[in-house]
């Protein structure tokens, strides 16, 4: 019935001891030259990685400073790093930058909230119901291809030049990536798990709550990250049109007075806020997705 | 020794599963074709068959996961399934997976009792991703048992486990069954596993139960027992695997299996009714 695997009994139970003596007997094959394998720690460079990584940007900063000091870069083209730091300090001191940041952050927050509600709501309707998919998905996929920035003129006609068109633009920009990712997340939930849920006697709502929605969460958070990026982008566009407050307004004003220093400060603030937002989503992911096998944070 | 299930159903006898004239077709091609199956309460039945013979489909039908069927299917209200993959919800801790779908707001203690029974009480708060294959499969078993099923459906639950873990998991299932006394239908492709655990081994072929083999060995069973080996060899032959000795050249082919089916229909009335379960 079974095939015999048993080889003839070895001469000695201790094979490792025997082996060194047997090698010369085989004769024909010369023994290979042995090379020591050095532990990775011994070869590692002395400079820590984070220091090496910060060197590049710092060198760039020094170069920029040198170019400004020597007059190659005039203040009209790009202000020197020192000037920018000083201007940033001034702007914070006289309160114009904090108030502008407050206005801008509020716009992004409200737009993001509305966009999340719209995007997630539509995705739930079309992800969970066949009829919802038929009604919603085609229209959303069609509208998605329209560059939302192109809608600015229309929004100005519809909503005037107050806060509404700005919020509408951010909301619109945010909705699509969320819709796409939540919808894909819902449709991508493992059918095996849904079947397991059914076999456990979960109701339709129970399946949605315990299986479908948690399964769509990773996709939803990816969507949220895309959305945040787009929210800042939409903010920049929105604030360039007839704004009387916000970071974009500061920039437009600075452009009129050729203040490159203020413009750069504003750009840095945009980058900083974007970074903060990304950090917030990462924290959210760490809290909500610790069950994921691929999760390596913590 | 080998009797066929195509025997008259005595409607008075209690049953945990009663299937008659079941047909399940995929795109007009019947995978299950007029199948009849009875499982008594507390009986351990193993279902063997070549891959693609419809045994997993039958289990899905009994689990209520596949309703595109014709015929009579009667199953207990309380039934539970353990699949080949553990199918734990990765976003729920182990104990929440176990109580998922239970009525009301189940206590954690309920889950812990079931997990203790499969030797996993200490992992109640773990995420499924941190479980080993065997642990995950035991958690899945606990999730099935916590429902106190009258019928436990096992779909090749040991198929993905390594050999050592499989032996332990098989032993565990045997013990749990003896303690709980629920009817079990085990779908497997492992003949040894079937003979080791089941009161009755069924071989499925061409959409029906083509062969039935009672296993009257005492428990716990010894795979080195010659009677065990004989049962195993007989079933392997039924499945179309030729025995290695040249003497038994009469290996079963699809043709002979079909012949067995038609012969059995004629002899249906003469077939003996299955005696009561022997195991404790």
Give a quick summary of the entry.
The complex is a heterodimer of chains A (298) and B (280). Chain A has helices at residues 15-26, 40-43, 49-69, 81-93, 96-128, 130-144, 152-159, 163-187, 191-199, 204-239, 247-256, 260-288.
What can you tell me about this protein's structure?
Chain A: Residues 1-13 have a biased composition (Pro residues). Chain A: Its main location: membrane. Chain A: It is found in: Cell membrane. Chain A: It is a multi-pass membrane protein. Chain A: Belongs to the binding-protein-dependent transport system permease family. The complex is a heterodimer of chains A (298) and B (280). Chain A starts with 14 loop residues before the first helix and ends in a 10-residue tail after the last helix. Chain A has a single domain (80-288), classed as MetI-like (MetI-like fold, Orthogonal Bundle). Chain A has helices at 15-26, 40-43, 49-69, 81-93, 96-128, 130-144, 152-159, 163-187, 191-199, 204-239, 247-256, 260-288. The radius of gyration of chain A is 31 Å and the shape is flat. Chain A contains 12 helices and no strands. Chain A is mainly alpha-helical. In chain A, helix 5 packs across helix 11 (247-256). Helix content of chain B is 31%, strand content 21%. Chain B is built from 8 helices and 9 strands. Chain B is globular, with a radius of gyration of 19 Å. Chain B is α/β, with parallel strands linked by helices. Residues 1-10 and 247-280 of chain B have low confidence and may be disordered. Classes of the chains: A mainly alpha (298), B alpha/beta (280). The A-B interface holds A 1, 192-193, 195-202, 206, 210-211, 214-215, 217, 290-293 and B 63-65, 80-81, 83, 85, 87, 89-92, 100-101, 127-129, 143, 147, 243-244.
Q: How does CATH name the architecture of chain A?
A: Orthogonal Bundle
CATH superfamily of chain A: MetI-like
Mean pLDDT of chain B: 83
* Total count of helical runs of at least 4 residues of chain A: 12
Q: Please give the number of β-strands of chain A.
A: 0
Indicate the structural class of chain A. mainly alpha
Q: Specify the structural class of chain B.
A: alpha/beta
Shape of chain A: flat
Biggest contact:
A-B, 21 and 21 residues
Give the helices and strands of chain A as they follow along the chain.
HHHHHHHHHHHH
What share of the residues of chain B lie within helices? 25-40%
Element string of chain B (H = helix, E = strand):
EEEHEEHHHEHEHEEHH
Integer tally of domains of chain A: 1
CATH topology of chain A: MetI-like fold
